[in-house]
């Protein structure tokens, strides 16, 4: 199939080849992709986007593979975007994650795609956001994004995912190492994988202690506003909110969070910390229950929309910045930048006057294009 055969209708009909071709067009920034993406826009916004993130070696790929199997058992169509490190020779994805998910290759209800980081920082590929929108419009119920192995600051997944699962494993360091990791603040559901290894119980205790401390100290976390809104929906007896997107669905009927017991704070809640052994499938069903319970809580409190609004605002800003950078890389712009740099070096103007002049020139250009 060539690019001319890619259409919004084919993607919406569930044609996996059309979706694959469109995502390839996104990766190479083919301008002809825009017409198809615009036609698909009205059909998105339905999929639950789940981010799986954590350090290298945490078992994210095996965990994702088991999550796909469980979700398929619940009758849901699942797409996976596996963000792989770029090949140093071709710039493409190394495909290590897809190798671990081969058992789903013949399932028409599963779509798996690797995306290369191509030097993009933050644990994601630059094409990830547009790829999610394609798969959403293609009718997948859940879109799972598995990030490249991240360290202590690669947190771009929060800008795309509705629910972030932060995966940890025993043996990564002491409690200070866990506390200082910036990624610990972004989780909605925490998973300690390889729970059959020595030290797993200690990791669970450390994560819970860190989360309880954050709540007691009023620290800003991803989950705090959601918990506050959810508490406002509770009845006088402390029961869970009755409003759920699908009250007949057992996995969405409750929000299984652990109460943090502390003097004067009997009802404090922290995100769930689930133990799993991905190799055997142990704990996977409960992890999916927690993910779906979080989705239900987002919908019941209105946070699903507000979180998506914030994410789209960030993505729009990043897109606009990319367009500005592209404009500055044109030959005419490079010449203007060189002239400004020369003026700064000659002490004719200072650095900040040069920035102001550059901004004024871009504003005039934008106005000229708008009024043309």
For this entry, give a set of tags:
372 residues, alpha/beta, Rossmann fold, seven-stranded parallel sheet, two-stranded antiparallel ribbon, 13 helices, 9 strands, 45% helix, 13% strand, globular
* Number of alpha- plus pi-helical segments: 13
As residue ranges, the low-confidence spans are: 88-93, 119-123, 241-254
Outline: globular
The CA-CA distance between the termini, in Å, is: 38 Å
Spatial order of the strands forming the largest sheet: 3-2-4-1-5-6-9
Mean pLDDT: 81
Assign the CATH superfamily of the largest domain.
P-loop containing nucleotide triphosphate hydrolases
Helix-strand sequence: HHHEHEHEHEEHEHHEEEHHHH
Q: Work out the number of β strands.
A: 9
CATH topology of the largest domain: Rossmann fold
What is the structural class? Answer: alpha/beta
Helix content: 40-55%
Largest sheet: 7 strands, parallel
Question: Any idea what the radius of gyration is?
Answer: 23 Å
Q: Please indicate the percent range of residues in DSSP E strands (runs of 2 or more).
A: 5-15%
Given this structure, which CATH class of the largest domain is correct?
Answer: Alpha Beta
Q: Architecture of the largest domain in CATH?
A: 3-Layer(aba) Sandwich
Q: How many domain units? A: 2
């Amino acid at each position: 199939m060539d690019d001319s055969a890619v259409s919004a209708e084919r993607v919406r009909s569930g044609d996996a080849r059309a979706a694959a071709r469109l995502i390839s067009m996104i990766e190479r920034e083919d301008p002809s992709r825009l017409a198809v993406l615009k036609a698909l826009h009205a059909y998105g916004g339905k999929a639950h986007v789940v981010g799986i993130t954590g350090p290298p070696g945490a078992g994210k790929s095996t965990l994702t593979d088991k999550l796909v199997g469980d979700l398929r058992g619940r009758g849901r169509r699942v797409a996976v975007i596996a963000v792989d490190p770029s090949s140093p020779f071709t710039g493409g994805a190394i495909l290590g994650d897809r190798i671990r998910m081969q058992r789903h290759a013949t399932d028409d209800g599963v779509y798996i795609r690797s995306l290369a980081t191509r030097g993009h920082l933050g644990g994601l590929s630059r094409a990830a956001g547009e790829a999610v929108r394609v798969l959403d419009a293609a009718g997948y119920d859940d879109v799972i994004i598995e990030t490249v192995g991240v360290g202590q600051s690669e947190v771009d997944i929060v800008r795309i995912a509705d629910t972030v699962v932060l995966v940890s494993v025993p043996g990564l360091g002491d409690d200070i190492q866990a506390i200082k990791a910036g990624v610990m603040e972004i989780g909605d559901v925490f998973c300690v994988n390889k729970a059959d290894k020595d030290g797993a119980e200690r990791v669970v205790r450390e994560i819970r202690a860190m989360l309880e401390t954050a709540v007691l100290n009023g620290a800003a976390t991803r989950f705090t506003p959601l918990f506050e809104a959810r508490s406002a929906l509770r009845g006088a007896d402390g029961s869970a909110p009755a409003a759920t997107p699908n009250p007949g669905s057992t996995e969405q009927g409750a929000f299984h969070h652990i109460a943090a017991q502390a003097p004067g704070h009997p009802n404090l809640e922290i995100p769930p910390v689930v133990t799993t052994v991905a190799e055997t499938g142990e704990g996977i069903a409960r992890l999916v229950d927690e993910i779906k319970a979080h989705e239900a809580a987002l919908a019941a409190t209105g946070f699903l929309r507000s979180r998506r609004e914030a994410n789209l605002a960030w993505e729009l800003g990043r897109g606009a910045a990319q367009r500005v950078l592209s404009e500055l890389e044109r030959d005419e712009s490079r010449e203007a930048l060189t002239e400004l740099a020369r003026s700064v070096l000659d002490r004719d103007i200072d650095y900040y006057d040069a920035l102001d002049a550059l901004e004024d020139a871009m504003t005039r250009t934008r106005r000229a294009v708008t009024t043309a």
